[in-house]
Input
Amino acid sequence: MEEYKSKKVLTISVVSELTYLSERQIRYYEERKLIFPERTKGGTRRYSFDDIEKLIEIAQKVEKGIQTFDIRQEEKKKERENEWHRKMLQGQLNAQFGYKR
Amino acid sequence: MEEYKSKKVLTISVVSELTYLSERQIRYYEERKLIFPERTKGGTRRYSFDDIEKLIEIAQKVEKGIQTFDIRQEEKKKERENEWHRKMLQGQLNAQFGYKR
DNA sequence: CGTGTAAGGAATTCTGACACG
DNA sequence: CGTGTAAGGAATTCTGACACG
Output
């Protein structure tokens, strides 16, 4: 449904306007592996609305004094937890209904 | 809520990809007063997701052989009808509850 | 009428680097 | 570490025009 938000369609200038961050900051957060824009054939970045939300969160943390490295670690931890929950749920289902074959 | 769709944030190249229309066609439909992108200070166009939907409708009509002039007339007619309904509703409300003062 | 295209210029974006603190 | 900035080049976009049918 709301694929708008995850579609990579925004230029860095638009993202800069919407987040009030400088293009330098946006590119730096990418360098630190916090966001992952796509690229056109020509090499220009393309962001999504989800990226904008994420950038705003990042900016708030940076303002609090949290370092990008730690933000990255936290992010990775969340991913691992999600992975764990996903597997857990899958295990539950398999236990109850068995594997498809 | 869904302000995403009306926000003018897309470049013409992205719109071209999403609509499968050429940039030439997109600019031409603007020339014919069918769509109204915003402009940056520098003069580059900015479109919304709503514009994309509108462009797809336009393209379908053009394929059917309808001329842009007629599409424009139909569009204006709709606007007048909406205006009429709006005033009608307002009149109903005023008749029941009187004017604010 | 609707669309393609080559042309020349301007706006936008990119990278790597130096600076500061 | 996080961010600003000047530098040079490449990608993107713009307009007005000519072409075709």
Observations:
- Chain B is about 60% helix and 5% strand.
